[in-house]
Amino acid sequence: MSIKNTALYRRMRYRKGLEEWLETGFDVPAPAIAKRSVLKRYTLPKSTWVETGTNMGNTTAYLGQFADRVITIEPEPNLYASANARFGDNPSIEVIKDVSENVFPALLPKLSGNVCFWLDGHYSGDGTFQGELECPIREELQAISDNMDKWDAVSIMIDDMRCFDPEKPGFSQYPTKEFLVDWAVSRGLRWDIEHDIFIARSKQV
């Protein structure tokens, strides 16, 4: 067994990540370990997870540890090929090559039960995919709104809250933070912000 697969190694990485984050004064963006703690805390039982922005697939693999099903969307060809090879033998993880604004209208009506979203497919700087829409959050949330009544409960997490300021250089296509809050309230969802993540979820959970 590789040492990277041991509990001791994971604990050492977790501690190192927290120590490095502490040294920055808990600045954003938060490290992956902090973000994943949010995903786990706000997951729903027996849920399908939809992830936008697969990237290297590490968060996908993490979600696969506790989700019934994971559907991850990655438009960048090389990253898609890597993720498809990584998860190709896992029947509970599906990798789709496209942008979320194209996938959601056909995908979301097929989902049922509890549904969770990790929306991280927007452009947020070097190393992230930049499509025709730098930030498809409006389109993603509209598709979610159109289908929420079909699901038992929903939990939505949107990464990179620091970017949701269209007056900042490079983020003019982003909606405001107030847009996200208003959207959640108008749909009867509870909302919160943790570790640079906007969270909106059904009130009954």
UniProtKB/TrEMBL annotation:
This is Methyltransferase domain protein.
